[in-house]
Amino acid sequence: MSKLVKNYNRKKISFKYGKGSFLYSRNGKKYLDFVQGIAVNSLGHAHPNLVKAINNQSKKLWHVSNAFIIPEGEKLAKKITQKTFADYVMFQNSGAEATEAAIKVARRYFYLKGKPSKNRILCIKNSFHGRTLAAIYASGSKKMTEGFGPRINGFDHFEFGNHQSLKKKINKNTAAIMVETIMGEGGIKVIPDWCLRELRKICDKKNILLILDEVQCGVGRSGDFFAFEKSKVKPDIVPIAKGIGGGFPIGAVLINKKVAPCMTPGTHGSTFGGNPLAMAIGNVVMDIVSNKKFLKNIKNISNYFFLRLNEIQKEYPKIIKNIRGKGLLIGIQLHTNQTKFIKKLMENRLLTIRAAENVVRILPPLNVKKNEINQACRIIKKVCSEIK
Ligand SMILES: *Cc1c(COP(=O)(O)O)cnc(C)c1O
Questions:
Q1: Using one digit for the tens of pLDDT, what is the confidence trace for 22-42?
Q2: pLDDT score of 48
Q3: Is residue 320 within 8 Å of residue 312, measured between CB atoms?
Q4: Residue 10 falls within a domain, yes or no?
């Protein structure tokens, strides 16, 4: 009998080891892993460079307090600022911590500007920003907040794609608009580039900060280092996590130079955040994923995957409603509940995971191979033909 709290509905399967795109179960079965810990293992399982990095660092130094300089963190922060919009970085351990810190930064910024009541954060209804108290109220989902009152104040919501409702919800106390550039849990819904540009314009006009939550869609997942990159929009604050650690828990808040100075000594902290072991690994992930050729390859393989999936959709339009997403953050939206479909995929040794709106979410490692995509497509096709 499991002594773990039942806050998860766990599948009756466990794994012995993983290699690249594959997981090997304890009862000797080989699975094609297109979940990768929910977009966490960006380089697949047991990537040799990551194994080497963790081995080397583990012999030298695991953890020291942020009361001291941590060169590995300095190095990673420098790399991130050289490759992105960010001027400063604040390391955390998880996505929820990073979004929570992003909220703190936005509020603190206006507090120091002498506008303490400009503290409300405007978010998309039924989005996902993590499971801390502030993050669940930011997400604005009834299911996530039920039973966890009193509610955390300071969050307003608009409907995805409803520009009228967005404009109506902005007032003089709006400090920030915080959205996922691509909604992950919410069903792989991409905010179009022109909408991002429109958001930036509104924020500039009304003196509001733009927070783009790239915890799931960032760090190469979209085919660009950030999902907002092609839009040319420059956000003020970007929380990241999942992919940057390649399987090791790392979160970070990326901040521009206008906003970052509001965080002075003592305003925020994290005991584990940015420790040497985490940073040694983050540096290796960053080196690989931020490489132009690597990103180009994600785009190519993604184009191929979408092409194949759209063919399958055309063949089975009564089962698959549409294929959505960007890069290697892909959703197969079904006409009906996806539970059985996901189970069938798993029986055929392909691991996927659900998202809202009947979506089967597909998250291969960013270095996935073409033949692995072919294998996945064969399984998806087979399941379509059997489920009909
Ligand atoms: C997963 C996720 C989070 C929360 O990350 P945790 O590491 O689970 O706390 C926040 N925002 C987005 C967009 C996510 O996908």
A1: 999 999 999 999 999 999 999
A2: 98
A3: yes
A4: no
The identity of residue 8, as a single letter, is Y
- What digits encode the pLDDT tens for the residues 371-384? 999 999 999 999 99
Q: Across residues 258-286, what is the average pLDDT?
A: 98
Give dist(CA 317, CA 172) in Å, integer.
47
In a domain, 5, yes or no: no
CATH of the domain at 320: 3.90.1150.10
Cβ(94) – ligand 1 distance below 6 Å: yes
Write the pLDDT tens digit of every residue in 10-22: 999 999 999 999 9
Q: 323 with 310: CB under 8 angstroms?
A: yes
In this structure, the answer to whether residues 315 and 243 fall within a common structural domain is: no
Q: Is the pLDDT of residue 386 over 80?
A: yes
User: Distance, CA 128 to ligand 1 centroid (Å)?
Assistant: 7
The domain boundary residue, chosen from 254, 289, 324? 289
Domain count, the chain: 2
pTM here is: 0.98
39 lines ligand 1 (CB under 6 A): no
Ligand 1 centroid – CA 213 distance (Å):
9
Mutate to test the pocket of ligand 1, among 129, 250, 326 (most ligand atoms within 8 A of CB): 129
Domain that holds residue 67: 49-289
